[in-house]
Amino acid sequence: RPGEAVQCVHAHDMAAGCGTGKFCATCGAAIAIVSSLASEKPEERRCLLTVQRGSQSVDLCLKVRSCIVKQADRRLVLLYLQDITPCHRWALLERTFFHDISSLIMAISGYADLLTYGDGAQLREFGGSVSQLTDRLADEVRLHRLLLHQGFDEYPVVLQDISLDQVSGDMRGLFGSHPVARGKRLVLPTTVPSRPVVADASLLFRIVTNMLVNAFEATDQGGEVKLWFEQDDQGTTFCVWNIAFIPDNVAMRIFQRYYSTKAEMGRGLGTYAIRLLGEQFLGGKVRFTTSQELGTVFRFSLPT
Fold first, then answer.
1. How many domains, the chain?
2. Are residues 79 and 161 in the same domain?
3. Whole domain around residue 235: which residue ranges?
4. Fewer C-beta within 10 Å: the chain N or C terminus?
5. Where are the alpha helices (DSSP H) in the chain?
6. Calpha distance 96→232 (Å, rounded)
């Protein structure tokens, strides 16, 4: 069976093997095979899976084509598997990295233009903004290299105190003009807990940004997304709500690399990055709850 042949980590979830586990119901290869058997026509799907390579788990994106071959009174399934992981990584690079870098470069360019007209205190202020944006640009390059190539040892985590007022202000500034939030509303808390969190600023910014982007993408025009903070002796939790419900077949794969409910290439890094950065790099915990009545809340908790 295909899952056993490529060493899918879910191939032996059930005693009956590949095709019988709960993850198999959403497997692109399984869907292509069943569809081609039903229609007796070639069927093509995208298959996202995690495979075992020695002691490591590797995420793959495959293009699967299933064809029926009739031989006497038998029907055989001819299955083609093409590894399109590099193509998907490049699409992710174009969709996320180039967009983020372009936004930062435009901001730096704007402040650089102001430097030619300012004097005294203005020059120092504009120069400081240019310096901060250049640092963020360098962080974004390192961060995207990490996410695209899993170079986990290449990103230096720098912990510092970060006020929740700063997080709230950064999100207000970012999503005030972000395309994904156009025609929608971001609801921020009127007051925030006073105790700062200890984290890497760039990683925390990326985690909260991804949480909000995902929420906005699931929200209809005219709708709203909420961000708030919960704090107790155990730590601080960043909460993002939207009204959409996540069905079970999506929920089970929501943190899988490359998985997306959108069909086009270049998606499927958002929730994967939230968990990777939040848990593996910052030592926090990412979870979500969803229901048709109350919508969906993603939570990222950082210990004190």
1. 3
2. no
3. 157-304
4. C
5. 2-6, 28-39, 85-92, 98-115, 121-149, 164-175, 201-217, 248-251, 270-275
6. 34
